[in-house]
Specification:
- By secondary structure, the chain is mainly alpha-helical.
- It has one domain.
- The chain is built from nine helices and four strands, in the order ββαααααβαβααα.
- A two-stranded antiparallel ribbon has the order 1-2.
- A hairpin with a 2-residue loop joins strand 1 and strand 2.
Length: 314
């Protein structure tokens, strides 16, 4: 008689923090750092192909990343303020970013604000930069989601599928009735971090392909990035069981409403920009502000201020 095999699930990591002497190394932070490095690398290659100076994306990241982290944390604290403020709560926890809790919408808004300041300082246009960065942002978000895996957070409802994610009982939200849904361990849930990771990678590949084929420009590539991400975040959000303040607004989670609003805004921009800048001319936008263009010859990059070979882009 063949013994019945136990179902295979995705195990959660035994730990998310390692210590090198007194220094804690947190997987959550490493995922964010790797994501930033990947986004800068992809963005730099694409920006140079558009006519920008090599290394400039990294300089701008020095502004965008801190602003993005502050925005991401603020969004999380605002929408989950009951975790940090009120009777028996420790407000200092709102500053402990290493325990998780970053809102992507706040990260995008903060990052864009930081990038806008940097663009003005370096004399470059915002739209070509954002178009160059768009696919890399999806890659960064795909990598960053693995931080949720190590923290055992932001997972979906119960599932018995082979790709179900095992979660420690003490990591399950307090409002979730474990006894009602499970007879006992293992406690397996939808790995929404993995769903979003795969969605973002697929969206990145599609965005790069569309950018090459349609020669997007004037902010349209970034608008597509927003639409792709919002479309995926909308359905993934429905699976999650974590609670946030204002979780239910007219029957939908707050983050779903945010996705709907941003998707609609990006779609409107994409259509209007497409009418104003049809595809044949879409690569003719200078990456530099007027009066800040380097000479087309004899510069350190040897690049013109206009893209000469869009096929070089990723």
């Amino acid at each position: 008689m063949i013994p019945e095999l136990a179902p295979a699930f995705i195990p959660s990591p035994g730990q998310g923090v390692w210590h090198i002497g007194p220094l804690p190394v947190r997987a959550y932070a490493l995922c964010i750092i790797l994501g930033v490095i990947a986004a800068v690398w992809v963005g730099d290659k694409r920006y140079v192909a558009r006519g920008g100076r090599p290394g400039l994306v990294g300089d701008i990241a020095l502004w965008a990343v801190p602003f993005g982290l502050v925005g991401a944390r603020l969004y999380h604290v605002i929408t989950d303020h009951d975790l940090y403020f009120g009777a028996g709560k420790d407000p200092v926890g709102a500053l402990e970013i290493w325990h998780g809790g970053l809102g992507i919408w706040g990260a995008i808004m903060g990052g864009v604000a930081g990038a806008a300041i940097a663009c003005r300082r370096y004399g470059i246009r915002m739209r070509p930069l954002m178009d160059a960065l768009a696919p890399g942002l999806l890659l960064a978000q795909a990598i960053g989601r693995w931080g949720n895996y190590f923290n055992q957070e932001l997972f979906g409802g119960k599932t018995t599928k082979p790709w179900g994610l095992e979660i420690d009982k003490d990591k399950i939200p307090a409002g979730y009735d474990v006894e009602k849904h499970f007879d006992g361990p293992p406690y397996t849930f939808h790995p929404t971090f993995l769903y979003e990771c795969l969605w973002n990678l697929g969206a990145m590949g599609l965005l790069i392909w569309l950018d090459r084929k349609l020669k997007l420009g004037f902010g349209r590539c970034f608008a597509l990035y927003v639409m792709f991400y919002c479309a995926g975040r909308g359905w993934i959000e429905h699976l999650r069981i974590d609670t946030v303040e204002y979780n239910d607004v007219l029957g939908l989670r707050l983050n779903v409403w945010t996705s709907i609003v941003l998707f609609t805004g990006a779609l409107v921009y994409f259509v209007l920009a497409g009418r104003r800048h049809p595809a044949p001319e879409s690569r003719e936008e200078s990456v530099y502000l007027p009066g800040r263009e380097p000479a087309s010859e004899g510069t350190e990059t040897g690049e013109s201020d206009l893209v000469q070979d869009p096929s070089r882009e990723m």
